[in-house]
Structures are given as C-alpha cells and as structure tokens.
C-alpha cells in the first residue's frame, strides 16, 4: 500500500502518518519502505514513535534506498541521529532566509521596513530619504540636543502636528519616539539583531549630534543597570504553576566573626497565582545541574572508537550513494533517449498530437522525479556524519565541564543542549533528554522508550550509565 502525506512533517499530528502508526500497532503491517528517514519524521515526537515501535518489535523492517538501517542498537542510534538531522534541516530553513538578509546588510542595504524619515524604493530595492518626515527627524534631534525640547512628549507633538501618526490617527507611542532618537541608522550605521553594519543610505544627521542626544536621554531616562547576572535563569520553570524560576541575591552579616556573606537563591516568580514551591539555594541547583551534565559524558577511549566507527559508516554511506547515483544517471539517460524517440515519432507523424503530449508529460514528470532524487543524493550525501562527530566530541567534554569550578554559564549552556523542559518540583530538577544525548543517559528500563516521552529526574544516588560495544553496535547498560 502506497501512502502519500501532504502535510509537513515538521509538526506532529499528520493524519496519514497517524493512520500508518495505527496499522503497525494493530499488527496489520510490520515494515515501511521510504526514501529517507526525513520522509517519515522531522519532529522529535514522530521520530520517537518510530523508534519505539522498532524497540517493541511491532515494526520489524525499515528500508531506505539512501540510508542504511539495521535493527540493532547501532542501527537505532544511527536512525535517531537521522531523525535529529531531519529536524535540524527544517529548523535550518529559516537560517537560509536569514542568510539572504545578512548578505544584503553586509552590502550596505536595509532588509526590513524603512525607518521613519526614509521610504523603500522598489526599483532600486534600497531606502531613500522621504523629505517630509526626514525634516521632522532632523528637527527633533537638533531641538532635543539644544535643550529646546526637554521631553519626548514634545517630539511626539511635533510629529502629530505635522500629520505623522499611527494608522489609527493617534499620536506615536513614546517607545516609537525613543526608537527614533536612539537609532544609529540616522547617521549611517545599521543595527540588526545586535550587530552593526555600515549602510549605503544617505544619513540625516551626524554622529556628533546623535551622541549629544544620547547624553541628554541618559541623564533624563537612565535606568539602573541590573546588579547581578544569574547563570541558571531563563530555562527552568516551576512544575506546580508553570512560571519561570528567578534568582535573588541575599547578603548576611555574622557579628561574631565580623564576616559578610552573599547567598543566591532560586525561586518561582509566582506570576500565575498561588504556588507552594519553596526556594532552593544556588549550590543545590548547581549540584543537580552538574550531575545532569555528567550523565551525558563519554570516556576518551569510546570517543576514539565511536569516531572511527562513524567514519567507517560514512565511507559505506558515500559508496552506497555513488552506486545509487550511477543507477539514477543510467535511468536519466534512458529517459532522455525516450524523449528524443518520442519527438522523432511525432515529427514523422507516427503518433498524433494528443498521444505525444500525454506521453511527453508522463516522461517529463518521471524526469523531474529523477532529477530531484539525484540532486537530493548529491546535496545530502553523508549529511549525518558531521552532526554525529560534533555530538561525540561534545559528549566527551561533559565530564570535564561538570568537574570544572566557577563555570556556571558553561553548565547552563550544556544543560540546555542535552535537555529541554526543565522543571523544579520540590527542589528536584526534572527534564526531558533530547536526541541524540538521551542515548547516553537513559537507564535500562527507559531504553525502549521514545525520546518524546522519556523523563529523567536528577537524583544523587542514581548509578551512572555507560556505553559498551558488541561487535560494531552500541548498547546502553
């Protein structure tokens, strides 16, 4: 039975895929033939379902012309890598769009909506000065720097009197006025996502005038800078109320010893109502995070072995791809010959116009499919190999990071890399390991679970897991 899915594999819930899973779970089918694992899943939930069905024996066979799979621990490990790479490919599509934006920025162009005082020229695809609003922007800077304007309200009123308003006809918001007065674009430098580029557009003011305005703004509207920067905020939530965990710095003075000490505590912000969860000292939270990181460690000897095995599999993969390319190239050449013969038959009036067009359309459709397959093999090749190498190298650094001192930021960065959905529940850290790191830390009872529903709790007395080998396969003890 051939099944074709029209919906994207980026998100779970595809009807055709779900019906396929139901057929497998009912025992009606036990094998799948697909072009590549990324045709089956490009999200962690669907990929986890496939691996779970393989673990339980309900799915006994997976065949791909462009990807080797064998129902062994090593094969499932490679399949998990392939699913992770497929998800990465989808996520990377947005990066391709960003690449075009940054290309334009590097060449002095502005890739977004033209700022106030400018307009977009569709012919040249650049921003040019809009005389009316540009005059108001210049006047605002000059009068604010000179002290004639003492507040942003006066700048807002200037724009309003001259017809520069929001779409509903109301005055511009104060944040919009502040955005105008603090925008480096007006003296020739473009700031985009925190990075600065030199623009080719004509500036409205000088940098000297801009700096003078910034000094005035700093005196009038300067906000107190945050005193403390905490390492473990921004990615942990409260399990009870789903609010984020924040941090506080407390000072304590000991009279007997004349000693002052500072302590950091993490607690729920309790923005969503009452919450009974108590605070946790930073030392306890950091200890649990270090334990989390250490669970994903890989010893040096296994790093060397796994890199060697990955390289060997990569060579086999490339050899297989070369064979597939050769077969497809032969089919492509045969198709070209058929098109030539079809055209000759039509020109010699052996076949009528209707038959010619019908057969030509069929051959062109087949040709397009072959072209896409050839291009896909050429483009992807052993695309899984580099991510796998990176994964092995990162896992080999885990123990070193966990043992190091005063490296809270490194601990937080690695923790976010190996897990997601971090929660604090009764001072215990819970999280969801992400592929492929979950294969390094999952205990034996959970080894058959999918990455989508596997949950670990960081417990000090849990035995560390390790990776061993049997022949050319990996398995988890």
UniProtKB/TrEMBL annotation:
Pfam families: Recombinase, Resolvase, Zn_ribbon_recom
Source organism, top-level taxon: Bacteria
Cross-referenced Gene3D superfamilies: Putative Large Serine Recombinase, Chain B, Domain 2, Resolvase, N-terminal catalytic domain
An annotated Gene Ontology molecular function: DNA binding
Entry keywords, A to Z: Coiled coil
Coiled coil ranges: 318-380
Domain Recombinase: 115-223
InterPro entries: DNA_bind_recomb_sf, DNA_bind_recombinase_dom, Resolv_N, Resolvase-like_N_sf, SSR_resolvase, Zn_ribbon_recom_dom
PANTHER family, sorted: DNA RECOMBINASE-RELATED (PTHR30461:SF23), DNA-INVERTASE FROM LAMBDOID PROPHAGE (PTHR30461)
Protein name, entry field: Recombinase
Organism this protein belongs to: Candidatus Amesbacteria bacterium GW2011_GWB1_48_13
């Amino acid at each position: 039975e051939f099944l074709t899915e029209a919906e994207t594999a980026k998100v779970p819930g595809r009807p055709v895929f779900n019906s396929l899973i139901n057929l497998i779970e009912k025992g009606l089918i036990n094998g799948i033939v697909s072009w590549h694992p990324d045709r089956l899943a490009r999200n962690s939930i669907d990929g986890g379902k496939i691996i779970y069905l393989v673990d339980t024996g309900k799915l006994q066979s997976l065949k791909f012309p462009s990807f080797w799979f064998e129902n062994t621990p090593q094969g499932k490990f490679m399949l998990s890598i392939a699913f992770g790479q497929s998800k990465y490919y989808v996520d990377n599509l947005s990066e391709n769009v960003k690449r075009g934006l940054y290309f334009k920025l590097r060449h002095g162009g502005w890739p977004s909506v033209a700022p106030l005082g400018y307009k977009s020229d569709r012919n040249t695809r650049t921003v040019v000065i809009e005389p009316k609003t540009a005059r108001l922007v210049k006047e605002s800077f000059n009068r604010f720097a000179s002290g004639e304007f003492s507040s942003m309200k006066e700048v807002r009123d200037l724009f309003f009197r001259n017809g520069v308003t929001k779409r509903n006809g109301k005055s511009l918001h104060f944040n919009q006025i502040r955005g105008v007065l603090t925008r480096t674009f007006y003296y020739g430098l473009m700031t985009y996502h925190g990075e600065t580029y030199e623009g080719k557009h004509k500036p409205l003011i000088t940098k000297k005038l801009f700096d003078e305005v910034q000094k005035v703004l700093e005196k009038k509207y300067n906000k107190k800078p945050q005193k403390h920067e905490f390492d473990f905020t921004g990615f942990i939530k409260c399990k009870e109320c789903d609010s984020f965990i924040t941090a506080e710095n407390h000072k304590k003075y000991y009279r007997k010893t004349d000693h002052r000490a500072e302590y950091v505590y993490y607690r729920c912000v309790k923005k969503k109502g009452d919450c009974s969860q108590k605070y946790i000292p930073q030392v306890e939270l950091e200890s649990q995070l270090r334990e989390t990181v250490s669970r994903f460690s890989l010893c040096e000897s296994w790093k060397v072995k796994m890199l060697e095995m990955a390289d060997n599999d990569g060579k086999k993969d490339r050899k297989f791809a070369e064979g597939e390319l050769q077969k497809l190239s032969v089919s492509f050449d045969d198709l070209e010959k058929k098109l030539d013969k079809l055209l000759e038959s039509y020109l010699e009036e052996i076949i009528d116009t209707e038959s010619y067009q019908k057969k030509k359309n069929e051959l062109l459709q087949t040709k397009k499919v072959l072209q896409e397959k050839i291009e896909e093999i050429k483009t992807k090749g052993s695309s899984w190999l580099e991510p796998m190498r990176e994964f092995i190298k990162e896992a080999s650094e885990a123990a070193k990071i966990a043992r190091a001192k005063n490296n809270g930021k490194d601990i937080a960065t690695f923790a976010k890399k190996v897990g997601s959905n971090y929660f604090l529940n009764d001072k215990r850290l819970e999280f969801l390991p992400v592929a492929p790191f979950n294969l390094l830390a999952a205990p034996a009872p959970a080894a058959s679970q999918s990455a989508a529903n596997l949950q670990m709790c960081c417990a000090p007395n849990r035995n560390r897991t390790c990776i061993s080998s049997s022949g050319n396969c990996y398995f988890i003890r």
